[in-house]
Amino acid sequence: MGKILAVGAKEMRQILRDRRTLLILLFIPAFFLLLYGYALSFDIRNVRLAVQDRDRSTHSRELVSAFVNSGYFALVGYEDSDAALARLVDQGKVRAILSIPANFERDLRLKRPVTVQVVIDGDNANTASTVTGYARTLIAEFGAVQMAVRTPGLESRIPDPGPRIPTITIEPRIWYNPQLRSALFLVPGLIAYISMITAVVSTALSVVREKERGTMEQVRMAPVGPVAYILGKTLPYLAISFTSAVLIVFAAMALFDMPMRGSWPLLLFSIGLFLVGAQAQGLLISTIADTQQVAFQIALLSSMLPTMILSGFIFPISSMPTVVQGITYLVPARYFLVALRAIVLKGADITAFWQDLVALAIFATVAMGLASLRLRREWA
Amino acid sequence: MTGDTHDRPHSRGSGSSDPPAPALAIAVRGLTRKFGDFVAVNDLSFSVKLGEVFGFLGANGAGKSTTIRMLCGLLRPTAGTALVGGIDVGRDPEGVKRRIGYMSQRFSLYETLTVDQNIQFFGGVYGLSSERFAARRKFVLEMAGLEGREKTLTRDLPGGWRQRLALGCAILHEPSIVFLDEPTGGVDPLSRRRFWDLIGDLSSKGVTVLVTTHYLDEAEHCHRLAIIHAGKLAALGTANELKQVFASRPIVEIQATQPVLAMAALDRLDTVEKTSLFGTAVHAVMRDTRTTAAMLAASLAASGVEVRGIAPVSPSLEDVFLDVVERVAAA
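Structure tokens for the assembled complex are given below, as produced in the milestone run.
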């Protein structure tokens, strides 16, 4: 319809006139991705390690180098005295201690149970549990290799503990993200988080601005229905936030090695659906708020916090209390994240997450409906 | 004026979109609007003839803007009817919107757009065809004296030009009825003068103009005036008719060295109905025609007030306005 076009062309011209805002809308999101992407990481590397080696044997040195070569630990030095080690931890010079008992090599040879102690600074519980996990894995691997390799008669062959040492071992296999890099888990969340904020805020401001300046009243006097007005106003912002979201996806692929295993059309469609919902939320806010300041605050709060906390971006939804889990059903990013991770990390097709796309569509429809209902009441 | 021919799906059928030419541009009967308990417009009735420039006077909050918003189809009346261009605003606000032009006190243009882009926007919103738009654009630029400034940002235009552009955008679609809500606020006297000339031009072409203002000198340009007070119609007529309230109560203007003392002395006289301050002069309204300026001068001299000049004056609209408002407030 010509009127939508008239409103849209006007809006686009206003946006283009305001170069600074346009650049902010387009590039700040990608910049945020950088910032958050590097700061928000659950991976732990180069944990400072001190070693108390009471055995001083080939085997003990091998264990230490297994730790260091893993990349998770960085050797600070050897120290024998317990007191000195405790001081190192207290001063924060060392976050982990590997203590190898005397007779380590001998006991290994005799296949006696050997206890290796790993001390971890627990002032950050998250880090501590992650480091514990690394250490456990390293020691277990080392043990398995020793058992197999040092068994007489199997010296030079591939470890085959089979009939001789009957043990049950778990063989974990992690799909899609074998190194368990938290970036791969976080980056899709960041894409959702940043796109959501940009789309909600820009849309909320654009309508309230017209209210504040009085141009809205002039438009209301013209024979333009609220629907034509809304479409004309939101389409340019949809185009911009869409471009911006795609830029973030590219940035994530380039900077964080995010894979793109699924179909591009499906990804773009999901992004579009998500953004329409976000814009509808922005519109709803702008029908409630009367000043740009209020609109900005509501928009920021209503997009930032739920997307950060309740979408499964950082905290898994399944471990939330039931009531809070219920609330997450109202957060569109929750559904978008499922779709995004499925497409990008797993290369899944639409059968895997169509329910989430439907949920996004419902959110967009309901929010858009509420917004136009409110706007219609204000309109005439 | 050219009829608006494009169809809109949500207008109420073709029957109401092209009514026979009404005899009156605006016919208001018992129009009332309440906001909760507050009655903003109270049982208003008046009519405006085709091609008339109709002035709406009233203090801030008297109900002028609320009335205009109802007449434009922006606000639903609580009670009463209003026919604008023959269309009932309560029934078909969209139909009304297509026939009227509206310009508000706030010059509602997009400041970050150029002159041309603003005109284009309103052309698009009113759905003008490209030929008609080209002609109307030329007309507006000419009328507003903005030829050669098409690429200027609206926010860089001086107030008077902006106001003329706003008027141009409001009449781009050639409405037969134009509502102007305090159109001349904050504009220099020369631009105001020019603006009223434009209103005169519109009226001479048969366009009906309903204008609110609180500049009483401007109100003299209107063919007829309505004075609104507290949501009620307090007076209605031509400027001369309104001034007739002073036919039997002459007004004497007194220049005194100490106007406040003069007022106090005048208020004590039985022959004086009331006094009010006009700049440095005092206007005294006589109770009847028998009291002359000379008699008043004598009385003032007797009470020791130094008078520099005293003469009968013809009532201004300001005298009328104050008188009307005071009487309504007293009633």
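Confidence is low (pLDDT under 50) at residues 150-167 of chain A. Residues 26 and 352 of chain A are 31 Å apart (CA to CA). Further analysis is deferred to the final report.
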